[in-house]
Specification:
The protein is an all-alpha fold. It contains 13 helices and no strands. It starts with 10 loop residues before the first helix and ends with a helix.
């Protein structure tokens, strides 16, 4: 049997070696990121899963923590979990429509390009660059009972003062207003970008047909902006489920833990009862995964 001619010069191997060296050098640049990613995400993630299957002594009890939280009425942290989950759902139900409708209305108005619209848009977006601590410090000065700006105005007008942060429903109203003021700028920008992609000739054709402005908004703008609205809705929904800073810093979960959201309950149990906190956190994560799967299913159906 005749052997085929084989290049024994070693050039193919040298070429592969040089390619490997180039790829390896590129990989070295990613090593710091991979190390940080593994240290602060991969390890805590799997350690949290393992911790949720353990008890205080470190023994594996598998799903006992989950069953205690979900179905054991004698488990003292069960009520904390469901109260936190209920408060989180209350925040989601009220904040998501608010953070979708108000930015949408403002984005549509800005798209008309009134005088000074660029300055107005910049002012609305500015709060999003502030940290949550600075936002809460500003709003506490506005909402305080004795020295707050609003109550000072009410006192000057001879009206009774309102305990915005220590009574209901004012505590929830305050949280929603602060959240809207702090985060709506991002949604305004995203929706505004979607409005710019709509062909203006469609509006011109509607105007020739005699359609009013409101009719064009409901018949043209909203349908053509549907994809952008859906993206903003999902982003806002996931962010609202992860709410923590506003209730923790503004109301401290009060009054009487009526604004204590689930992440606050998890943090409260993190150091003394990490196994309980891990189980609660994973159940919250499962809720987020369910929301993401529903999102994916809706997107797939829309694309089909």
């Amino acid at each position: 049997m005749k052997l085929k001619n084989v290049d024994r010069s070693g050039k193919p191997f040298i070429g592969k070696l040089s390619v490997f060296k180039r790829q390896f050098k590129g990989f070295l640049f990613a090593v710091p990121f991979l190390a940080i990613f593994c240290l602060f995400f991969i390890y805590p993630f799997f350690n949290g899963i393992a911790l949720s299957f353990q008890n205080r002594r470190g023994d594996f009890v598998w799903f006992q923590n989950y069953t205690n939280i979900l179905s054991n009425p004698d488990f003292i942290y069960r009520d904390d979990f469901f109260r936190g989950l209920t408060n989180t759902l209350i925040f989601v139900v009220f904040s998501v429509p608010l953070l979708l409708v108000v930015p949408l209305i403002i984005a549509i108005l800005i798209d008309l390009k009134p005088v000074g619209y660029k300055v107005f848009r910049a002012i609305l977006f500015m709060p999003t660059v502030f940290s949550i601590s600075s936002v809460i410090l500003m709003w506490k000065r506005v909402l305080e009972v004795e020295t707050g700006f609003i109550n000072s105005v009410l006192k000057t007008l001879g009206l009774s003062q309102i305990n915005f942060l220590g009574s209901q429903p004012w505590a929830w109203i305050s949280l929603l207003i602060v959240t809207l003021w702090w985060t709506m700028g991002t949604n305004i920008v995203l929706l505004g970008a979607g409005l710019k992609n709509i062909d203006k000739t469609v509006y011109e054709a509607a105007a020739i047909d005699g359609a009013s402005y409101l009719r064009t908004v409901f018949s043209i703008t909203l349908p053509l902006l549907g994809g952008q609205i859906f993206v903003v809705f999902i982003m806002t929904l996931l962010a609202s489920f992860n709410v923590y800073g506003q209730p923790a810093l503004l109301t401290a979960g009060g009054p009487e833990r009526s604004t204590q959201v689930l992440l606050m309950v998890i943090i409260d149990n993190l150091f003394d009862r990490p196994y309980v906190a891990a189980a609660m956190a994973l159940m919250l994560g499962l809720i987020m995964i369910a929301v993401s799967l529903i999102q994916a299913a809706i997107v797939k159906r829309r694309s089909d």
